Every structure is written in structure tokens, then in C-alpha cells.
Prior knowledge:
Layout: E1 2-7, H1 19-29, E2 33-38, H2 39-47, H3 50-64, H4 82-106, H5 114-132, E3 139-140, E4 145-146, H6 154-160, H7 168-175, H8 177-184, E5 188-191, H9 199-206
Amino acid sequence: MKVMLLFPPNWTPTMPHLALPTLTAYLRERGVEVLQRDLNLEVFDEILTQDYMQGAVARLQAEYGAAGRPAQRSSRKQPPHPDVVKQILQNGPHLAAQVERAKSVVRSPAFYDGPIGLRNFQVIIDCLELASLPYFPASLHLQSYEAAGPVDSSRALLQLVRDPQTNMFLDIFRRGIIPDIAREQPDVVGISIPSLPQMLAGMTLAY
């Protein structure tokens, strides 16, 4: 038997949850083949890249233009404030140029140098705001994820899992873990959802 265990976003990436590693060790000790994926870390790692940041800026420019207002053809029900969009568009290229260095610093001993760590941590925070804005009102943070609707409502959740306008995980999963599942062909796929901010990403995977 082959089992694939998945840990979806969002969870604080600096404090990995240990339930799946424990289950993985238990199953492997009993001869079960286990593939374990920390999708939370993988998603943050993909988003915090220059390419992803540039793509987010391009999407905002295409949808809102320099004025920060949605085009008349837009079907978006709840656009962000124009001033927020304009500010992000202004800072976006600079953030895209900084993001990979900031991620490298946060992963290194240099992070513990107060001013250096704080400066690069703020770049990460700003980049997550940029990455989230095309999916407004959904918002991704290091410590949480706010979906565009109530994830404790099955009716709302079933709409959110297939909404590319507000669900940032759809595209990431379609390009990443979904083809991997098809290639590996596990007998069982387990999705660990120990917190409510993981509900949308976890149910998007299941859907």
C-alpha cells in the first residue's frame, strides 16, 4: 500500500505541526510506503519568489490598471480600495526584486541580527500582501489565512474551493501537487487539517 499524507496551508511555517511526521513514522515502521508533503511550506516557498511576485503585479495591472479600479468588464463583486491597489502596484517591482533575498535571510543566522531580520521580515509581510491582493478579499499571512467567505459553512466552502477569483490555492495545486498525486498514484491520500485557516486549502485538495 502507498499512502500520501498532505499538510495544507496555512500554518505558521516556523512551527511545523508534528502530527503527520508522527503518523508517517508509525506507518513506515509497519511496512507502509508513505509519501509526506508539507504543502504549507511548499506554498510559501513558491509564493515568495520573484516570478510569483511579478505575476501578481501583472495580474493587478491587467485587472485594475494604473487608477487601481477594476475594468468595467470585471465580474469581481468586492474589489480592494483603489489606493491600496495603487500603492501595491507602485511597490510591487521593488518587492519582487527583494523577495528571494529576504527569504534567504529569514532562513539564515543573519535573521537574528535585529535590524537585518526586521527589515527582511517586513519584506516577507509586504510580499504576502501583494500575493493576496489579486484574490481579495482573501488574505494570506505568515500565521493565518482569511478566506473570501466563511469556511465553516459547507455551502460557502463548496463555492470557494472552485472559485479561481478568490482561491489562490487552486492554481498552485493544479500546477504542483495534483500532477504529483496523479503520477504517484497512491492508494490513500490523507489531508491533515488541525486548524480552521487550513480548511479552504485542504478542501480544495479534496475537491
